[in-house]
Design brief:
Radius of gyration: 21 Å
Shape: globular
Distance between the termini: 41 Å
Helix content: 25-40%
Order of helices and strands: HEEEHEHEEEHHHEHEHHHEEEE
Structural class: alpha+beta
Largest sheet: 7 strands, mixed
């Protein structure tokens, strides 16, 4: 029976794990979304924080800071991804593995920290091809390496049976002795900045859900689709922002307005977005908006899952490389509420809500 025909129901848990473990924390043989910063010729995190990896009841991870950042995210079939999209694209295990790495690494990045290790819980229907699971492990490893998380390892996880695919990843990280950057530190007079981008993943989602066959997309449109399937958060930006004196930071996973409103509420301020900066973010989306007849600004303001980094800095601080000013921070006047405005006017586009959408 070929690798493509074999399903997880035809293997024991031990046999399936024997196919997964060799794919974790190893030199990569598959191409990545983008080149590594340096050649990867040794296992991920070799000699680093992972003291004991998969195989025992729990992993052992060193916490040199004495404090541990921890976060968790879940992707569920037909809620967070489809195995087959309306335009004909089939989600691969590699896609889901990469995205699982990206969204969790981004959470540690948003605190100004560095990821050390993660564990994965994978729930599968019995008919899931073994090849899909192997590709998932490859994508997870490739995502960690390709996004530049050289200190991060896969420490282990759990396999389970269920009616649909579901992936939960818990991740730990360190601040290397520095204070974590919270959402609640933005102050009136600060500059509002963005590292990475927004809107690309939302444009890609719209293409996936459209009637335009994937084979008919241009290279630029396909790149937008890839931003949804394999996001590229700016992992270097978190520690750089923290070192430069960022007063607040957060991962933009649910949309610029929704997540900006969360930062504004936590800090008790108003974030005022610059419409010129917003228009510059929309330029990269025009190839999709022209095809689908939509306003790209809706994706810029409401689209999530690019995992860009929203941050505030004191006005006298030079923004670190990779950050672009997109607005300013203001005090809440009497009779106002914290929130997000565009050129002083209320903004009404909303982002992603897991329970309302």
């Amino acid at each position: 029976m070929s690798r493509e025909e074999l399903t997880v129901a035809e293997l024991s848990e031990g046999e399936l794990l024997a196919r997964i473990f060799p794919r974790l924390n190893k030199p990569l043989s598959k191409p990545l979304n983008k080149p590594l910063n340096k050649p990867l010729n040794k296992p991920l995190n070799a000699g680093g924080s992972l003291l004991l990896g998969p195989g025992d009841d729990a992993a052992v991870v060193a916490a040199p800071d004495g404090r541990t950042l921890i976060s968790i995210d879940t992707q569920t079939q037909d809620q967070d991804f489809r195995l087959e999209w309306n335009n004909g694209y089939r989600t691969t295990g590699y896609d889901v593995g990469w995205k699982s790495a990206a969204q969790n690494l981004s959470d540690i990045n948003a605190m100004g920290g560095t990821a050390l290790s993660l564990v994965v819980s994978l729930t599968m229907p019995p008919g899931t091809p073994v090849a899909w699971v192997e590709d998932f492990a490859d994508g997870l490893t490739a995502g960690i390496a390709g996004l530049g998380a050289a200190d991060c390892s896969v420490a282990g996880g759990d396999l389970g049976r269920g009616r649909e695919l579901a992936v939960t990843v818990a991740i730990v990280g360190t601040m290397h002795g520095l204070p974590a950057v919270l959402r609640s530190g933005a102050r009136a007079g600060d500059c509002l900045a963005l590292a990475g981008t927004v809107g690309r993943a939302a444009a890609g989602l719209a293409l996936l859900e459209s009637e335009v066959p994937v084979a008919g997309l241009t290279a630029v449109q396909r790149a937008l689709m890839d931003s949804q399937c394999r996001p590229n958060p700016p992992l270097a930006a978190g520690p750089q922002g923290a070192a430069a004196g960022a007063t607040a930071m957060m991962d933009v996973s649910d949309g610029l307005l929704r997540d900006g409103s969360r930062l504004a509420a936590a800090s008790g301020v108003i974030l005022d977005l610059d419409p010129v900066a917003l228009k510059s973010l929309a330029v990269a989306l025009e190839a999709a908006s022209a095809l689908l007849g939509t306003d790209p600004m809706d994706w810029v303001l409401g689209g999530g899952e690019d995992h860009g980094l929203l941050a505030t800095f004191p006005a006298n601080v030079q923004l670190p490389s990779g950050f672009t000013a997109i607005g300013s921070v203001h005090a809440v006047a009497e009779g106002q509420h914290s929130g997000v405005r565009i050129a002083g006017m209320p903004a009404d586009t909303v982002g992603w809500d897991h329970f309302a959408d």
